[in-house]
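for the record, two folds in this file. i put them one after another cuz i was lazy. first one right below, seq on top, structure tokens after. the second one comes after a little note so u can tell where it starts
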Amino acid sequence: MNGQWCTLVRQANTSYDLADPAKVGQIKAPTLIIYGEEDVLRRKNRLHANIAGSTLKMFPNCGMPNYQTPVPFAREVTSFLLD
């Protein structure tokens, strides 16, 4: 089972992380990137490293902050949009 899980995660990492670094590097608009620290499907610093001036917010103790911590998530997004 452990080997199957590793394979599943590896495939998911590929399918969920489709952003082309060359294209996201062209983004000039203010950009908020939010991840849960326990999200095992995405490489968390990849977008932030390729979008100049982007803001990265990591939510502790969750994988999907918009689902698991909706109020703090909404507060973070609202604050970013109002700045």
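(here's the note) second protein begins now
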Amino acid sequence: MSNVEIWFQDETRVGQQGSLTRVWHYCGERPRLIRQQQYMSQYIFGAVCPQKGTSAGLIVSHVNKKMMALQMEEISKQVSRDKHAVVVMDGALWHQADLNLANVTLLKLPPYSPELNPMEQVWQMMKQRFLSNRSYKDINTIVEACCSAWKAICESPHIIQTLTQRKWAEI
């Protein structure tokens, strides 16, 4: 039994120029769908641990080192008492936060390799199922939509494990 937990972390923007996705419709007809046209957005900082099927997330208005530090503190709280977390993430500029957390270590992925971060599949599934083909009235509506989408993912540990388990990340 290893005393290390592997976590995957990433962030995504929601709301600005909302995304479209495929939908079922009658053959020969085009469905009418809505798309956000204003420039309003929020960010979801998310991290998952496939071993435990747990997650840690924040919804914030912007990304920077301070928000990244808050995300790392949230991950630190979720790590089991006798374990150490290795958080796998890309090399975004704000991922350079100075950490003084005894139970968290950062592991940066090589540049231009988003396919190595399973959080990309979590974002894709979340946006397709919960956040596409929508128009948001205001920032509060975006935050509510982000909260409910993230909560739906977090309440299904099997979805987290199915989307994020990788043989190369097992210890």
